[in-house]
């Protein structure tokens, strides 16, 4: 996400988090494994199924990135069929795809923020599907709940606009944080090394992934997959696994990133002091339309007409849905 996010910096009570699926069998297995493996990750937060929304707040103010959306509060979103959990435990976050609007009107959508925030950890998100299409700007990201943006940082794990062919992973920071581009050659290309951002200069430092399965239509054609972020003081590593390539240790909730091969994005702490630039990060899932990124990018996206015209037509949003299997956090 871009632009002035200070308006949404909320004071989040750290104690008010939901621990879904506190499965005792799982924890016994973790306890056993920690004897045989050094630094084994322990599951601390698991968001899935009928209690998914207990761990999240619905953001219902004007989109800070100027999108043509009305973000609904939880009762309104539930009533409109835009935020619900299916009987198979899939959580759905959708954009209204039934209402014909006048050109220039805002379309209903949702944006949720985790009640909890973190300073490190292993974040694993399994999505069956993600929103995409003309005017659509989906994002799964993290942002500081206590500092005024961009101080405290922003971590964009899944993000793109319009018909973008693959995912972009981006960090935004305060002054004095660079992506050390000499550190690795990955299956991605670095698009910018300056993480420092401001409302007027908010591209951040980023990688464009090469795998078309990492985003949008092709992501959904594979029934989605898993994004993983390992965030330590030494830096951040990101992996993407398409549905049929998800490591067994991820599925069995016993993840060991040292076995996953080369990340798709690495942000080392050599040219950026990670601990001082990124802290108290809450998770966010949202879909906005047009706004500060999808809007200006629209004319070169191959999409017809104008971005506002696309928003008015509900048939453009039939697949503008996040389908979440689960999000897990390990420490
Ligand atoms: C959904 O989750 C609940 C709670 O963990 C579980 O009891 C139920 O079996 C799950 N349903 C399906 C279809 O997986
Ligand atoms: C890069 O991506 C291609 C296509 O997805 C894959 O076959 C290859 O193994 C990847 N290489 C690395 C180093 O991950
Ligand atoms: C970038 O990383 C390389 C290799 O790890 C290291 O030698 C170099 O000092 C780093 N550059 C900066 C500016 O920290
Ligand atoms: C992070 O959040 C905690 C709890 O709200 C707060 O005490 C602390 O000052 C915050 N850290 C920074 C660096 O702002």
TrEMBL record:
InterPro entries from the UniProt entry: Beta-glucanase-like, ConA-like_dom_sf, Glycosyl_Hydrlase_16
Domain GH16: 34-331
Pfam families: GH16_XgeA
Protein name: Glycoside hydrolase family 16 protein
MF GO annotations: hydrolase activity, hydrolyzing O-glycosyl compounds
Presence of the UniProt keyword Hydrolase in the record: yes
PANTHER family (alphabetical): GLYCOSIDASE C21B10.07-RELATED, GLYCOSYL HYDROLASE-RELATED
Signal peptide from the UniProt entry: 1-22
Gene3D superfamilies referenced in this protein's UniProt entry, alphabetically: 2.60.120.200
Key word Signal present: yes
Keywords of this entry: Hydrolase, Signal
Gene Ontology biological-process entries: glucan catabolic process
Organism (species): Obba rivulosa
């Amino acid at each position: 996400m871009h632009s002035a996010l200070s308006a949404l910096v909320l004071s989040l009570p750290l104690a008010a988090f939901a621990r879904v699926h506190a499965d005792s069998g799982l924890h016994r297995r973790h306890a056993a494994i920690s004897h045989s493996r050094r630094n084994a990750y322990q599951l601390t937060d698991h968001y899935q199924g009928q209690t998914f929304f207990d761990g999240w707040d619905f953001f219902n103010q004007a989109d800070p990135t100027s999108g043509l959306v009305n973000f609904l509060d939880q009762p309104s979103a539930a009533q409109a069929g835009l935020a619900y959990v299916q009987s198979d435990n899939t959580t759905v976050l959708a954009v209204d795809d039934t209402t014909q609007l006048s050109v220039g009107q805002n379309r209903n959508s949702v944006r949720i923020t985790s009640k909890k925030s973190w300073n490190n950890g292993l974040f694993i998100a399994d999505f069956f599907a993600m929103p995409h299409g003309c005017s659509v700007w989906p994002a799964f990201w993290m942002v500081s709940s206590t500092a005024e943006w961009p101080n405290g940082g922003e971590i964009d794990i899944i993000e793109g606009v319009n018909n973008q062919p693959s995912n972009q992973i981006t960090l935004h920071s305060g002054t004095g944080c660079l992506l050390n581009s000499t550190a690795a050659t990955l299956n991605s290309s670095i698009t910018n090394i300056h993480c420092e951002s401001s409302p007027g200069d908010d591209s951040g430092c980023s990688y464009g992934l090469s795998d078309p399965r990492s985003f949008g239509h092709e992501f959904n054609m594979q029934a989605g997959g898993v994004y993983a972020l390992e965030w330590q003081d030494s830096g951040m590593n990101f992996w993407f696994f398409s549905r049929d390539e998800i490591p067994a240790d991820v599925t069995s909730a016993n993840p060991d990133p040292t076995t996953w091969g080369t990340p798709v994005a690495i942000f080392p702490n050599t040219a950026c002091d990670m601990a001082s630039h990124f802290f108290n990060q809450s998770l966010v899932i949202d879909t906005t339309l047009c706004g500060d990124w999808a809007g200006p990018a629209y004319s070169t996206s191959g999409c017809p007409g104008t971005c506002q015209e696309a928003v008015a037509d509900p048939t453009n949003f039939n697949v503008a849905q996040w389908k979440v299997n689960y999000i897990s956090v390990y420490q």
